[in-house]
Amino acid sequence: MLRAGSPRLPPGPGGPAVWSTLRLLERPLESLLEWQRRYGDVFTVRLLTFGTGVYVADPAAIKEMFTGDQSDLRAGEANEPLAPFVGPHSVLVLDGPEHLRQRRLLLPPFQGSAVQSFREVIREVAEAEVAGWRPGSEFTMRERMRVLTFEVICRAVFGVTEAGQVERLRAALLPIMDTGIATAFLPSFLRRDLGRFSPWGRLQRQLARADQLLYAEIGRRRAAPDLERRTDVLSLLLRARDEEGRPMSEAELRDELMTMLAAGHETTATALAFCFDLVLRHPEVLSRLREELGDGDGEDYLKAVVTESLRLRPVIDAAERTLTRPRVFGGYELPAGIRVYPAIALVHRREDLYPQANRFKPERFLDGETESYAWLPFGGGIRRCIGAALAQVEMAEVLRTVVSSVELEPVRPEPDPVVIRGITMVPRHGVPVRVDKAA
Ligand code: HEM
Question: In the CATH hierarchy, which top-level class contains the domain 57-438?
Answer without folding.
Answer: mainly alpha
